[in-house]
């Protein structure tokens, strides 16, 4: 079980604004890491944009699960994990991180902030501590804390999209993705996603 | 660019050379990969070296691969001559791009046999290929071939030393001893490296059957009967399986370790110690096989004095039974813990089945032995006597007691009433010694009920019910 990324975003009227992010890409091959990171940012932003305030959702994409929580004050967080990682622990982590973040960072800075200007350092620590869900002591928490039936489940990224919208178009328009990542996406797409180039 | 045949020729030769030079420049390259890059940039080599990682830009692969592929095939068909150095370079490039190309590995086998390549170099190439293609069957197969070459070398030298030792009536020459020590260190190093290669490949690709079965092969051939290695593997795998609860291959490896350990612990020193000198001389012969296990030697020496050996055998037998009991107990505890912490993974439930079945059949076997040979029964009963060697884990012991209490209440339900556990319990009560309780049919049933009572996860319930059904139909039906 593995956590790949943990990011905090502000859900603006049209798009989500990345405030801070932490990544653990050690399990990806070296030359893919930068592209993978860009894709994780792109995906996290897209998911926050498509999630309504005050709701929790899990989106399945290939062998990954993206868990999102957007609070009523428009502050949202996304954790990208593999399918083995317990969902409940992910939502505990999201609650905790958002709570801590909103205490430390003034809400005036949320709409316009970016990873360079926001002063919140705990994300990397949380990400590495939660790699082993049992050490993160979230396992012992009472199950009732979170009503799992209220979590919306999407089986693909596509189900987040609006009518007529295509993921390919969003990828090619995205500002989160560099040329190399777009090329990476195209090849992966052509090869039926799972296996990369060659 | 590079459209005409000549241009391709020049380009490819340059790239092959670049790859060779990269390895010369940096002998510590530990990963290979392809960099997504649809178009070539002028005056830049498509080979990139960053922080010990070797990358090939994707645009050149479509020129490179067919070219080296054809070149090697033409050489194989004797239509095109390549010198040894060129062969080494071309097969290296080819295998890094496509490690499942058997012909290329075969060419390297020949190069290895005539001494152009050394085994370590090929193990290294395979290791790199596995960073990009962690499952590649041909790479694993070639790896085993190379390891066999190393083993053969080792046993040839080991045998030579042995004969000399016999000539000198046991007075081994210091130089020889040093040499064989070097060799066994080398072999231990190779073993460690193989374990590392397997771990890396298993982490890169989930349920990587090829990697795990290679790991089993390595243990069977390079650490045969070496209980220490098996123990180390079992404990070092603990965290890994806890973090990969749906990786069936990883758990299968654990099952292998467990059954090897059981055979090893119950068969090695103890059982053989009581046997006659004839079998012990047989052992001496078999110990020329390069296993590097200190057990055998000490045991053979112990055999010199029959009476002492018998006493030692008795003690060892008691110890071995406790060890086996502890192994099973710990494995079942681990399994329960993981099932409770990570609900809904079938892998964990099938692991439970396997471990319980292993224990169950072992117990049936010992029952069978008891009816044919009464003495073993008494030995086993005595086995519960020794104060637990390293069961100092108080919390664990306390927990056992409670489980034990539960089990005790349901004991009469057990079909095979006269179980070993029963008498052990009474012994324990008398002496106040805490031995872990072995898993039994009732204790398994109460585990399933506890899961069903508490858990609402539909998958988990389904697996629990299936396990219960299996207990009833498979285990319950057996005498």
TrEMBL record, chain A:
Keyword Membrane: yes
Compartments in which it is found: Cytoplasm, Cytosol; Cytoplasmic vesicle membrane; Golgi apparatus membrane
Keywords: Coiled coil, Cytoplasm, Cytoplasmic vesicle, ER-Golgi transport, Golgi apparatus, Lipoprotein, Membrane, Methylation, Palmitate, Prenylation, Protein transport, Transferase, Transport
A Pfam short name: Longin
Signal sequence range: none
Principal cellular location given in the protein's record: cytoplasm
Official protein name in the record: YKT6 v-SNARE homolog
Family classification: Belongs to the synaptobrevin family.
Source organism of this protein record: Anabas testudineus
Location of the V-SNARE coiled-coil homology domain: 138-198
Function per UniProt: Vesicular soluble NSF attachment protein receptor (v-SNARE) mediating vesicle docking and fusion to a specific acceptor cellular compartment. Functions in endoplasmic reticulum to Golgi transport; as part of a SNARE complex composed of GOSR1, GOSR2 and STX5. Functions in early/recycling endosome to TGN transport; as part of a SNARE complex composed of BET1L, GOSR1 and STX5. Has a S-palmitoyl transferase activity.
GO MF, any single term: transferase activity
GO CC entries: cytoplasmic vesicle membrane; cytosol; Golgi membrane
Listed InterPro entries: Longin-like_dom_sf, Longin_dom, R-SNARE_YKT6, V_SNARE_CC
Domain named Longin: residues: 8-131
Membrane topology according to the record: Lipid-anchor
GO BP terms, alphabetized: endoplasmic reticulum to Golgi vesicle-mediated transport; protein transport
TrEMBL record, chain B:
Annotated Low complexity bias: 273-288
Alphabetized SUPFAM superfamilies for the sequence: Protein prenylyltransferase (SSF48439)
Keyword Chloroplast: no
Protein name (record): Protein prenyltransferase alpha subunit repeat containing 1
Gene Ontology CC terms: cytoplasm
GO terms assigned for molecular function: protein prenyltransferase activity
Keywords from the named record: Prenyltransferase, Repeat, Transferase
Location of the region described as Disordered in the Swiss-Prot/TrEMBL record: 273-315, 386-422
Similarity comment: family membership: Belongs to the protein prenyltransferase subunit alpha family.
Name of the coding gene: PTAR1
Annotated source species: Anabas testudineus
């Amino acid at each position: 079980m593995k956590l790949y990324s943990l990011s905090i975003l502000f859900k603006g009227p049209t798009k989500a604004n990345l405030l801070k992010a932490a990544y653990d890409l050690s399990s990806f091959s070296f030359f893919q890491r930068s592209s993978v990171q860009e894709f994780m940012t792109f995906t996290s932003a897209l998911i926050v944009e498509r999630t309504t305030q005050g709701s929790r959702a899990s989106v399945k994409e290939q062998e990954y699960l993206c868990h999102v929580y957007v609070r009523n004050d428009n502050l949202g967080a996304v954790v990208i994990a593999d399918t083995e990682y317990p969902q409940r622990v992910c939502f505990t982590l999201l609650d905790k991180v958002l709570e801590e973040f909103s205490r430390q960072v003034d809400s005036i800075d949320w709409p316009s902030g970016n990873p360079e200007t926001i002063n919140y350092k705990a994300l990397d620590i949380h990400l590495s501590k939660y790699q082993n869900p049992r050490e993160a002591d979230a396992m012992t928490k009472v199950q009732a804390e979170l009503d799992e039936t209220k979590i919306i489940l999407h089986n693909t990224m596509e189900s987040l999209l609006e009518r007529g919208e295509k993921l390919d178009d969003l990828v090619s328009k995205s500002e989160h993705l560099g040329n190399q990542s777009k090329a990476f996406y195209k090849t992966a797409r052509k090869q039926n996603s799972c296996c990369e180039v060659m | 660019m590079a459209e005409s045949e000549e241009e391709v020729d020049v380009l490819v030769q340059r790239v092959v050379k670049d790859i060779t030079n990269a390895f010369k420049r940096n002998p510590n390259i530990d990963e290979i990969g392809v960099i997504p890059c649809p178009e070539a940039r002028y005056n830049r080599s498509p080979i990139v070296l960053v922080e010990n990682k070797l990358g090939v830009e994707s645009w050149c692969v479509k020129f490179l691969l067919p070219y080296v592929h054809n070149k090697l095939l033409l050489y194989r068909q004797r239509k095109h001559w390549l010198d040894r150095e060129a062969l080494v370079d071309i097969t290296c490039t080819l295998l890094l791009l496509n490690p499942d190309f058997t012909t290329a590995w075969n060419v390297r086998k020949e190069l290895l046999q005539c001494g152009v390549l050394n085994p370590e170099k090929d193990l290294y190439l395979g290791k790199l290929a596995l960073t990009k293609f962690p499952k590649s069957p041909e790479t694993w197969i070639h790896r085993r071939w190379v390891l066999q070459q190393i083993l053969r070398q080792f046993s040839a030298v080991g045998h030579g030393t042995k004969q000399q030792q016999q000539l000198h009536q046991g007075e081994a020459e210091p130089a020889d001893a040093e040499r064989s020590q070097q060799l066994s260190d080398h072999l231990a190093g190779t073993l460690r490296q193989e374990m590392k290669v397997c771990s890396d490949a298993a982490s890169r690709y989930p349920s990587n059957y090829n990697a795990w079965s290679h790991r089993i092969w390595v243990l069977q051939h390079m650490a045969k009967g070496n209980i220490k290695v098996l123990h180390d593997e079992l404990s070092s795998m603990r965290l890994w399986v806890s973090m990969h609860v749906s990786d069936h291959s990883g758990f299968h490896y654990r099952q292998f370790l467990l059954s090897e350990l059981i055979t090893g612990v119950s068969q090695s020193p103890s059982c053989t110690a009581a046997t006659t000198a004839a079998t012990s001389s047989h052992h001496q012969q078999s110990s020329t096989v390069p296993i590097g296990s200190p057990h055998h030697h000490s045991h053979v020496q112990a055999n010199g004095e029959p009476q002492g050996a018998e006493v030692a055998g008795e003690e060892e037998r008691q110890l071995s039974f406790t060890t086996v009991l502890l192994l099973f107990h710990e494995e079942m505890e681990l399994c329960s813990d993981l099932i409770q912490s990570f609900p809904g993974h079938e892998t964990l439930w099938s692991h439970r089945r396997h471990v319980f079945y292993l224990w169950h059949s072992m117990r049936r076997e010992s029952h069978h032995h008891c009816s044919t040979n009464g003495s073993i029964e008494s030995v086993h009963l005595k086995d519960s006597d020794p104060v637990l060697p390293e069961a100092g884990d108080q919390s664990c012991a306390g927990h056992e007691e409670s489980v034990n209490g539960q089990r005790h209440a349901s004991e009469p339900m057990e079909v095979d009433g006269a179980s070993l556990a029963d008498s052990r319990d009474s012994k324990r009560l008398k002496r106040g010694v805490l031995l872990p309780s072995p898993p039994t049919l009732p204790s398994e049933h109460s585990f399933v009920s506890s899961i069903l009572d508490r858990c609402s996860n539909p998958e988990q319930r389904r697996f629990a019910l299936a396990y219960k059904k299996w207990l009833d139909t498979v285990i319950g039906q057996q005498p």
